[in-house]
Amino acid sequence: MFEPKKPGEASSSPAVEEKDEGTDQFKIGPVAGVGIPSVVSFGGTLKLTRFLGGGVNIGLIPKVKLSYYGDATLSYQHYDIYGRIYPFGGGFFLSGGAGYATVDGTLSSNKTVSANGYSGTVDYNSKGSVRTLMLTALIGYFYTTSIGFSFGVDAGAQIPIAPSQVSYSSTYDVTTTAPPALHDLVQAEFKKQADPIKQQTDRSVQDTLEKIGRTTLPTINLRIGWIL
Q1: What is the count of structural domains for the chain?
Q2: Separation of CA 11 from chain center
Q3: pLDDT one-digit tens code per residue, 8-51
Q4: Domain residues for 68?
């Protein structure tokens, strides 16, 4: 039998839950990371909705020698613009981006040579640079706390999609024990002997840059950020 509710008595019907109005709010913030091939990276990321996001990323490698790629010492820069899909509306995401990777390679060599009875040293420095259009594909997880602190991990590959062109510059210096009167004559002879050194050094730089500029690179990153 229906009984009227007495004045001041609480309703016995279930409470209606409030709808979360902040679920699809626009969010943006800085992100930094460590990993490979970029030793350090930084940029910004944004959430358009629970399911869509994007951002920019810049990765750097200080000068380092990687025997897998050859003899030259490398420095690396990579930047791209990416989009993300969060298929379940949480931290798990799939990401695709496009950008450019620029790799500089340097190699120095020296050799003691002799000419006309005098000895000297040839110091040769070769420097090359390669710039490649890259696609980046990642899968990862990026969790944001209620106060905005965020952290995550991702892995994937950087894939070169356009031919790479390698540019070069080189310098060499010759020092000799020859007296000033014969210095120019002896130095000219040393320069002739420097050609094989130049060819070998330039070839080492070229081989290193062509390999890294045309090789798919695995990428793994740990990232932290502050997204508001």
Answers
A1: 1
A2: 61
A3: 555 444 444 444 444 577 999 999 999 988 889 999 999 999 99
A4: 27-226
Instruction: Compute CA distances 79 → 41, 56, 141, whole Å.
Output: 9, 7, 21
DSSP classification of residue 163: -
Q: Is residue 87 part of a domain?
A: yes
pTM of the model: 0.70
Q: Is 17 within a domain?
A: no
Tens of pLDDT, residue by residue over 141-167, are 999 999 999 999 999 999 998 767 777
Nearest C-alpha neighbor of 151 from the set 141, 160, 161, 137: 141
The answer to whether position 18 is within a domain reads no
Q: Classify residue 80 by burial, with Cβ atoms within 10 Å: 0-12, 13-18, 19+.
A: buried
Task: Provide the CATH number for the domain around residue 57.
Answer: 2.40.160
